[in-house]
Amino acid sequence: MPTTTADAPAFKVLPEPSDLPEPLAEPAVDELRLENVLGALSDPLRLTIVRKLLLESEDFDHSCGWFGLDRPKSSLTHHFKALREAGVTRQRQYGLERRSHVRVDDLNARFPGLLDLVAAWTPPAPRAPQA
Amino acid sequence: MPTTTADAPAFKVLPEPSDLPEPLAEPAVDELRLENVLGALSDPLRLTIVRKLLLESEDFDHSCGWFGLDRPKSSLTHHFKALREAGVTRQRQYGLERRSHVRVDDLNARFPGLLDLVAAWTPPAPRAPQA
DNA sequence: CATGCAGTACGATAGAAGTCGTACTACATA
DNA sequence: TATGTAGTACGACTTCTATCGTACTGCATG
Q1: 3-class DSSP state for residue A93?
Q2: Most exposed among A9, A46, A104, B100, judged by the fewest C-beta atoms under 10 Å?
C-alpha cells in the first residue's frame, strides 16, 4: 500500500512558500470522499478545467479567466466551487483574483491513479457537425 | 500504452463460454465515456454494488437479490440500469433472473486503476449513531 | 390454472444540480 | 472619486436524478 506520493505520477506539485493567502474552505485530506470526487469529475466542463490545470498549468495558480471558458461568470463560480468543495482543487484569493490549482498530492495519496485518468481524458465530440 | 489486461490488477474476469444469453444493451468499449462512468460511480449505493461484485463475487454473475440491498425492487432496477448504461456492468437474462457482473477487462483497458479505487472504497459512516 | 417469484415499466413526487441574469463587493488606478 | 476588473451572492428557471408505489410480464411448479 503506497504511503503518499512515492509511486504517484509526475504532475506538477505547487510549492507552498508559507506566505500565501489562506486557502478557501475545503475538505481535509482524510475527509475526501471518493463518491464526491467522482461526482465533481463527472461533468465535462469540470473535467476540462481539471485536465487543463494538470497538463498546462505553470508553477503558479490560475485565475478563472485563464481557462478561456465561454460561459457566464456565475456559471464558472458554480463549477469552481463544486470542484473545491469536493476537494479536487484548492483556491486562494490573490487580491482581485481567486486562483485555483489541483490538490495533486492529496488526491494521489487518497485515490492513486485517478488524476491519470483525468489527464488522459478527451473531451466529447464538440457537436454534431452540421447537417 | 497497454493493450488490454497486461498490467491490469487481478480482479476476477468471468469466462464467456459462448452459450450465454446475449447481454442487454450496453455501450461498446470504445463508447465508454469517463464522465459517464464516474457519474455512475458517484453514488454510494452503486459504489456498494460494484465493490461487492469486485470483491465478493464468484465466477458467475449475480442476480439483484444476491446483494442483499434493503431497497424496493424498482429502485434497484433503476441503479442496475444506470450502471449498465454507463458501461460499468454487463447484464444477462437467465430465465427469471437478470444477472450482473463488472466489465473488468473493458474498464481496465479504458480506465486503468479506476476499479482499484472502487475496491478500496469504504462506505460512509452508516448514520449518526443515535442521539 | 392459481400461486409465487424476479424483475421491469410507468408514473408521481421531491430534491439536487446546471444555467444564467442581475446586482453587488473589493481592489486598482487614472 | 469615477471607472474598470475579478469574482461572488442571490434568485429564477429548468433539467436531471433518486425514490418508491403500483401494476405488469414471464417462468416455474403445485
Answers
A1: strand
A2: A9
**Cell triple for residue A34?**
471518493
Closest CA to B85 of B42, B43, B32: B32
Q: Which three cell numbers, joined as nine digits, stand for A57?
A: 498549468
pTM of the model: 0.84
- Three-state SS for A92? strand
A44 CA vs D12 C1’ separation (Å): 24
How many other CB atoms are found less than 10 A from the CB of residue A93? 13
Determine the angle formed by the axes of helices A44-56 and A73-86, rounding to 10 degrees: 70
Checking each nucleotide's C1' against the CA of A76, the nearest proves to be D7
Residue B1 C-alpha from the chain's centroid: 25
Task: Measure the CA angle with vertex B40, ends A107 and B16; round to 5°.
Answer: 110
Q: pLDDT for A50-86, tens place per residue?
A: 999 999 877 778 888 899 999 999 999 999 999 999 9
